[in-house]
Amino acid sequence: MYHPVKQLIAAATGSVITLIILSWPPSRVVPATPSPAITDNTLQASPGNGNNQALQQTVIDLKRQLTAEQQIREALEYELQLMEDLLADIDRNTTPPEKTVTENSPRELWFNQQRLLDLGINPAAINIIKELSNRAELEKLELQNRVARTTKDREGRIEAGKLYAQIRAIDSKLRADLGEVNYDRMLYAYKQKNRVAVSDILPDSPAAAVGIQAGDLILSYAGEKILNPQSLYQKTRQGQAGEMINVEIQRGEEVLSLYLARGILGARLKPTTGKPN
Predict the structure, then answer these.
(1) Is the predicted pLDDT of residue 1 greater than 80, yes or no?
(2) What is the pTM of this model?
């Protein structure tokens, strides 16, 4: 003769407790009626539910936590990009000796408009680029100063993430205001990296299959101008994987138009500087 064994399992979610009683041997199996999925609309439509407010508050708290984690991630990504740009500017391990600055020595310019004049760009256009970029640079410096003053705990990183998001928004607006051509010229005047060079190619990779070579400069991808490796990596992950897209490269003085499937390139890239069109 079997003696019934009962086991009580309590599963708690917030303040809701579900009691499940298991018996052996079972007398008969009764199919359980599935509960309706809990959604925001369900919670709002059930004012009699004593746990309604508690569950709604839990949803709000989780959304806030998710937003905070996203902001921290953006802050870390921005810091990583700054570090990568800094490392890209270091061409050798040793630091060159500092130059002695005198009254007669040439002054290093923040915005070197002579670089653009040498390319034959209209002075009026240069002044517009300089005015807009200098204004944006001051705004970013102020935000970067505020980032440096944030604490290193979780709350500080959340605040830093918000500030980095504002810095990126300033860059995006400046690029939209100047347009792709003038934004490229601005980077060149600031002596910033504005080209993406191929440093190495994996054998049998998509890049090798279409003839991309080490030393090539990638000018555009799927019709969009490429000014740094990060933007190129992002473009390879957008759109429909496998679709045929156009890639413009520069090899020496020659510009070539190639077609390959959207996705990985199999090429090692590095930022560099090149004369804008």
Answers:
(1) no
(2) 0.62
